[in-house]
Specification:
- Pfam families: PEP-utilizers, PEP-utilizers_C.
- One of its GO terms (molecular function) is kinase activity.
- Keywords: ATP-binding, Kinase, Magnesium, Metal-binding, Nucleotide-binding, Pyruvate, Transferase.
- It is built from 33 helices and 30 strands.
- The protein has 839 residues and is of the alpha/beta class.
- The chain has 4 domains: 155 residues, no CATH class; 102 residues, D-amino Acid Aminotransferase, Chain A, domain 1 (2-Layer Sandwich); 130 residues, Phosphohistidine domain (Glucose Oxidase, domain 1); 301 residues, Alpha-Beta Barrel (TIM Barrel).
- Helix 32 links the parallel strand 29 and strand 30.
- Helix 32 packs across helix 33.
- The longest helix is centred in the C-terminal third of the chain and has 26 residues.
- The chain starts with 9 loop residues before the first strand and ends with a helix.
- 49% of the residues are buried.
- Bound molecules: phosphoenolpyruvate and magnesium ion.
Amino acid sequence: MQQDHRFPGVTEITPTANIRVNAHGGRAKCLQRLVRLGLPVPRTEAIDFRSVSALKSGQTLDFDAIFGRMDPDLPLVSVRPSTAQPDWGGPSTVLNIGMTDRVHAMLRGSIGAAGADAVYARFIQSYALHVARLDPGIFTGRASVADLLRAYEDAMDEPFPQDPGTQLRAVLGAMALAWDGATARLLREARGAPADAGLGLVVQQMVLGVGDRERGESGSGVIQFVSSSEGQPQVTGRYLNQSQGREALLDKVPALYLTRDPRGPSLEDRAPEIFAALQDHGALCRARLREEMQIEFTVSHGRLNILDAVRVKRSARAAVRIAVALATDGIIPEPEAVLRVTPRSLLDVLHRQIDPEARVTPVTTAIAASPGAATGRLVFTAAAAQAAAARDEPCILVRRETTPGDVLGMHASVGILTKRGGVTSHAAVIARGLGLPCVVGASDLVMDRKAGTLTAPSGVVLREGEEVTLDGSTGQLIAGAVPLLQPSMDPALGTLLAWADERRDIGIRANCDTPAEARLADRFEAEGIGLCRTEHMFFEDDRLTLMREMIFAEREQDRRAALDRLLPVQRGDFREIFQIMAGRPVCIRLLDPPLHEFLPTDRAGMAQLATALDLPLSDVQDRIQSLSEVNPMLGMRGVRLGLSVPEIYEMQARAIFEAALATEPRVTPEIMIPLVSARREVELVRARIAAVADAVQAETGETLEYRLGVMVETPRAALRAHEIGEHASFLSFGTNDLTQMTYGLSRDDAGRFMSTYVSQGVFEEDPFLQLDTTGVGELLEIGAERGRTASPDMVLSLCGEHGGDPESIAFCRKLGFSYVSCSPFRVPVARMAAAHLAI
Ligand code: PEP
Ligand code: MG
């Protein structure tokens, strides 16, 4: 007989009882597993969701009978919540229900006056707090049981209930109501609970950890066998003799050590057989429950009882180590280990994190654009960042927004904060590539560069040179230094990712602009480079000057002369990248940004340029003025620039070909044309590149192989993919620009209102962060389908920032894309996410 038919809805937890997570909750189910393993669990009854809910409408259970089934020498019970998911919260546990004057007197005889008083006192207070909802202040200054009972009676105008059944009914009813409270509801719904999530309750025979000292060890505690922060085997927990419930966990009480320790007494010393039994139980739980469990236990006059067990809380790093160890020990299969680690959590493993124990008060919170945390001194210009780096001083660079001219300063910083921009703004994209923490869209900060101050709306003023901490995982800026946890690329992560790779069926490449980033891609085992943005190679000082010379050249031959000097530099970069990637595919995008991005914006920079080019300042200013555009992101950039100043793409193609011919093992470079919207653009560029290839082959006598592709990042390119694809061997969807152009939403300005839009439900999620699978996604579907009609072998991929987002990867996989490409630090996340989809 599994269900106790006398009391529908109350089921004793026995090995064969019908206990279900969806009817009784996870705690009840876990307790049943412990019972099945033969662990010494006190008698426990589970009340199902339906019956708990019915308690609110006055339905009742036979509470006296529940007590009738408990130990007559200790007629006390505890009640704990049991929900379908452990992180959905639930009302607080109440211990010692059934404690009355009669039981108090009885306990004085069995465990002594002090113990009996302590148990009664605790119960009166917790009943007052959780059931009668009294202010805990009414007990201040009262210590004796008689005083507490009087305080209760004064506040309630009735004596403390002396009937165990009444007490239990009141506790269960209060817990059922608390589950329906607005805060509890909001909290669990935020954690993914459905609106009708049920609460089960577990009623358990109390075992007292408070006892007669003469009759052996008594106490309570928790124990686990791995470290929650690092995940390595380690006995961790707390034990306190003469204690109950989770008292041992309170910081104010000095707990005992669990294992033998020279610093003081331990459970292992006091009760070695109990400690050994706990170790055995832990090992049994691990092997049979296939999980690292934290065990709550009580020792009562030398007897061990297991009251509860929950999955060990763990940091992201510990989760990886625990999953790998369980699979290595043959307890779970490898694919299950992969599934046990959330892809996004790997970002925490790969970046520095603010120590979760640290208490921080942010000066402001804005958009978290690139994960990780860093402490450094505030600087307001890229030049100041470089100067700080030269002094070996970590710095946080604050800009209104960044431009390619800030890239060297960004390299020199440990974190980047901008007032403007969203998650695909320049600052965000570069920071992710560099693995630097970045916060964008901090529009509430007032920056006064002259005064060297940054003022928050609260009035807090941060000064240039002052130390701050930036957390790109949460979007927080914090004054001063904060303790940080260091990242690790630990062998367990390597193992787990190797298992993930065996299962996934979509390729993962990295977006890398420089040899340094290619090294990162190699370290994170990307299958190749899916996007190399060549513009970032031109920002080192000598290169920038050459670039500017090229831009200022009036005649084609002058332009070519400048480009001839850029050629070896660019060839050198490509060669290094090819070598690092050692035969893996590398896709290089021809120059994309408008030329004015390479020019100075302030007077001092213009004067310097005038000196370098030996031109009057007014000429420099006129030229810069003539290059400025009203809407540069929709202006002369990408292939439009390539067709207007064809020598640039010719130089780049030559650099790519010559680098490829000089690399062993040989690579087949992939060349990609940005911002295409018409077939003819591709035809023209293709012809010029073919001419360069012919010339290089003629000069070297070598045969060149390369692939030419198109970036689909304008809506028209997606719609006309069948004709644009005729001249391309691959199409790579640039979903940053494609999102920007589909929504008509500037990626550099969206940060201003994105949080309003998301909080009001206009957008479910920032579409620059998570692919809009309906609108932009439809263009991807159309582009993919039409592109395949141009050639059935068309290689399709995505290289926007969405490439590192698990939901967006799922969409690309559904469309049959060959690969996605994301910033190097997100490669491990993408590898895991892809494996989750395939398992
Ligand atoms: C894109 O537009 O999606 C892209 C990858 O290119 P960029 O971010 O350099 O514009
Ligand atoms: Mg783009």
